[in-house]
Write a structure and sequence with these properties.
mainly alpha, 0% strand, globular
């Protein structure tokens, strides 16, 4: 694959991608904070409305598995700009959806953008900045993720009570337009060699350590989203909090997530094994405690802040593991990781919704806790096979 000048740092482009991450994450997880009004407006159960998370995950899986080969020869600048336009269209479709079917179609387009963007994110960053700056640029990109997680849920629930869930979703549209304009100005040409054959994404699973790692990643995200997707109905129906207090609790969880994102780098540098094992175990314990203290709002608020502190930065450890384990196949490895993550989100959100509707929040949270424990056990096995981070830049 052709590369941009490795001595030039395109920080404006990195910042444009960071804004894209923030907008995309806000769009992806907006249903979490607006699940109740969406369900009421479209006359659905909360569990059915939660499938808006699941469908975006499904289409992200399909996109991530094939985009590296399907887009061979296409300039990455043009591809990223195209995905941004799709994000804008999906925001408009969701905001003005007259039926549940149109709503889900808009959410499917969000999934296409998620799969395409995240599959190329690491490889793109490696082409935009010199090798010594890659870790800092990746941290900045993940900071956009954490910032969106902080703002989207509380802001969505807060605005939803005043302007409705539809206009809250519509806010994605001008943000996507701004992102497109910034990318247009900042992204350099990043040609892709049509003759070079990228590694087959699924072929990477031939390696035992990759299979273990991807299974651990799947359990981590499935466990998280079996719980996270249904926090709003849990807080409203079982903790009995109003919208204002709900927004404050979600804001506290988001702020804690930003703090956790700043701390995870130190833990990864100290011990990758601990960074892979401690977060899912902590999240499992928190999920179990939420079941035990589910009617005490102050304790729930503290537990959800700890959830944000631990859960938001948890994926950073696995992206680090991927960089150490598969340094020579950046796009294919990224596609595989995104496919696994989004499939796990799909199954976690869908399975959690079924359990929530049939047996209540305790069943969904307990299932999530068990999946998280499984992730920690597999992480322990796979951390031992991670090699030191490569110093070269493989685009």
């Amino acid at each position: 694959m052709a590369s941009t000048d490795k001595t030039t740092a395109h920080w404006g482009a990195v910042l444009a991608l960071t804004l894209c991450v923030s907008t995309l994450i806000a769009s992806e997880f907006m249903p979490v904070s607006l699940l109740t009004p969406i369900a009421a407006d479209l006359r659905l159960s909360e569990g059915t409305a939660g499938q808006a998370i699941a469908v975006s995950g499904l289409f992200a899986v399909l996109t991530s598995l094939g985009i590296a080969r399907a887009s061979a020869g296409i300039d990455r600048r043009h591809l990223l700009l195209g995905l941004t336009l799709v994000m804008l269209v999906s925001g408009a479709m969701v905001a003005f959806a007259p039926t549940f079917g149109v709503f889900m179609a808009g959410r499917a387009l969000v999934g296409v953008v998620i799969g395409g963007f995240w599959s190329m994110s690491t490889a793109t960053i490696m082409r935009l900045v010199p090798p010594p700056d890659v870790p800092r640029a990746l941290a900045l990109l993940n900071g956009g993720n954490a910032l969106a997680t902080t703002i989207a849920a509380p802001l969505g629930s807060f605005l939803g009570q005043f302007i409705g869930w539809r206009w809250t979703f519509f806010m994605v549209v001008p943000l996507a337009a701004l992102t497109f304009a910034w990318k247009w100005l900042a992204l350099p040409a990043m040609p892709s060699d049509r003759q070079a054959k990228p590694a087959l994404t699924l072929a990477l699973l031939a390696r035992a350590e990759v299979r273990r790692g991807m299974a651990a990643v799947a359990l981590l995200f499935a466990g998280q989203f079996a719980v996270f997707t249904y926090l709003r109905p849990f807080l409203e129906q079982h903790v009995h909090v109003g919208v204002s207090l709900l927004s404050l609790i979600l804001l506290g969880m988001g702020i804690a997530g930003v703090l956790g994102n700043g701390l995870i780098g130190r833990l990864v540098a100290h011990s990758l094994a601990q960074a892979l094992i401690v977060p899912p175990l902590a999240l499992a314990l928190i999920a179990a405690l939420l079941i035990a203290v589910g009617t005490h709002a102050p304790l729930v608020a503290v537990l959800l802040a700890l959830w944000g502190l631990t859960g938001t930065p948890a994926p950073v450890a696995w992206w680090t593991w991927m960089a150490r384990t598969l340094p020579d196949d950046a796009e294919a490895a990224g596609g595989l990781m995104v496919a696994v993550i989004q499939l796990a989100i799909t199954l976690g959100a869908a399975g959690g919704g079924l359990l929530f509707d049939a047996f209540g929040f305790a069943a969904a949270f307990l299932a999530g806790a068990l999946l998280l424990v499984g992730s920690a056990l597999l992480g322990l096995a796979d951390a031992r096979h991670a090699s030191p981070l490569p110093e070269r830049n493989n685009a």
